[in-house]
Amino acid sequence: MTYSYPQWKELPELDLYLDQVLLYVNQIASFSPSQNDKGLTAAMINNYVKHGHIDKPVKKKYSRKQLARLIVITSLKNVFAIQEISQTLEILTANHQSETSYNHFVACMNDDSIEDVPAVIISACQTLKLYHQTHQLVLELKRGGTDESGSNT
């Protein structure tokens, strides 16, 4: 599976309204193989703001920093608890490191070569990729395409 997450500099420079955020994030994080995953919703964003997982929008608009955070949360929410993701992001983005941490996540997911990526980001990316790979294999098994070893039948 090929991932294509935008680097920080490729995220919209202008702040976005909620409906624009939903459209943008769901297009980027649409790699979920689970049909039960409806992606990011307005209720989820409101909940994330309410619980302090993302900053409140300013004049109903979301910044690049909030957008990056929502992309990461939406990508990882099927694998990790929101509280775990949020706590990890707090540590990684301390000292104004949001851009660097987000770019590390993107590089890891896009299989780009980059140095000094924190082990927690590498591990989260590997876990997410294995999660998607497992779901893909399950779908193939349901269709009768492979046996349990992963070989074609």
Secondary structure layout:
Blueprint: E1 16-17, H1 18-28, H2 42-50, E2 61-62, H3 64-76, H4 82-92, H5 98-109, H6 119-143
Antiparallel strand pairs: 1-2
Helix pairs in contact: 1-3, 3-4, 3-5, 5-6
InterPro entries: DUF1836
Organism: Streptococcus ratti FA-1 = DSM 20564
Pfam family, one: DUF1836
| Largest sheet report | 2 strands, antiparallel
The CA-CA distance between the termini, in Å, is: 21 Å
Radius of gyration: 16 Å
Return residue spans where pLDDT drops below 50 for at least 5 consecutive residues: none
**Proportion of helical residues:** 40-55%
Described by its quaternary structure, the protein is: single chain
Report what the structure shows:
With 153 residues, this protein is an all-alpha fold. The protein is 53% helix and 3% strand. The longest helix is centred in the last third of the chain and has 25 residues, at 119-143. The protein has helices at 18-28, 42-50, 64-76, 82-92, 98-109, 119-143, and strands at residues 16-17, 61-62. It is globular. The protein contains 6 helices and 2 strands; from the N terminus they run βααβαααα.
